[in-house]
Amino acid sequence: MKKNMARLLAAAMLSVAVNGPVPASETTEPSGVDVNDIASLQRGAKWYVNYCLSCHSASYMRYNRLAEDLGLGEEMVMQNLVFADAKIGDTMDIAMDPGQAKAWFGTTPPDLSLVGRSRGSDWLYAYLRGFYMDENGAWNNTKIPDLSMPHVLWQLQGIQTPVYRQETSASGFTREVIDHLELQTPGLQSPEEYAGTARDIAAFLEYLGEPAILKRKNIGEWVIAFLVLFTFLAYLLKAEYWRDVH
Question: Of the candidates 129, 132, 107, 127, which has an alpha carbon nearest to the alpha carbon of residue 21?
Fold first, then answer.
């Protein structure tokens, strides 16, 4: 009985793999994100607030911390990055009711405070560039197939459609996979410009996941320099102590 159930389950999984087109398994392209690039983080904050914050909160980040870390100043943050009734010391929350969000989208949009740490900037960069319009006229994504999130940046990127190819496994089963995406309707930005936008958002999300990364990396360079100097001094001290022994 157990063997028959296993065969049926395997057959069902193979049927899905053969009949349903799936994204091709590719190595994630390096994003080139540099969290020490403050200008990139500032642009990423702008894109995030304008296109993402209406649904996705960043409740572990406060606006005044954002102003300090990104060198913007509290007045500039309040004028350009705060669109609700929030105060400078408030966290980056949203006004959307979770119950209504679940009714509209089928699931509650997650808080993105830590997505940069859990996913990594390379994955986020590929995700933001991986939206396409499928055969049913619905938004889909190469990184998360059949996601419920609409492509909020489509006006910037434009509309992409998938180009498929046949892929045969070692066991002889053939399936249709996405080979690449083609831009069918241009957006407000060129592909190169949109790639820069995706990179800036990925950088900002990586910063959100660990705001201390800006200071930690700078301090790390000084720590390494101190250790090198200390090692040199320790070697001189060791040579002085052992001089009389020899």
Answer: 132
- Percent of all residues in the chain with a pLDDT value above 70, rounded to a whole number: 88
CB atoms within 10 A of CB 126: 22
What one-letter code names the amino acid at 184? Q
Domain borders along the chain are 25-211, 219-246
pLDDT at position 85: 85
Instruction: Please tell me the predicted confidence (pLDDT) of residue 44.
Output: 97
Greatest CA separation found in the chain?
A: 85
Class of domain 25-211: mainly alpha
pLDDT, residue 96, reads 83
Count Cβ atoms within 10 A of the Cβ of residue 200 and give its class: 0-12 exposed, 13-18 middle, 19 or more buried. buried
The Cα–Cα gap between 76 and 67 comes to: 8
What is the distance between the alpha carbons of residues 58 and 176, in angstroms, rounded to a whole number?
38
CA distances from 110 to 107, 113, 220 (A): 9, 9, 32
Burial class (CB in 10 A: 0-12, 13-18, 19+), 57: buried
Question: Of the candidates 183, 50, 47, 71, which has an alpha carbon nearest to the alpha carbon of residue 125?
Answer: 47
pLDDT for residue 21: 52
**pTM for the whole structure:** 0.78
Nearest residue to 183 via CA among 156, 152, 158, 153: 158
Looking at residue 232, its pLDDT comes to 87
C-alpha span between 131 and 129 (Å, rounded)? 6
Rounded percentage of the chain residues whose pLDDT exceeds 90:
59
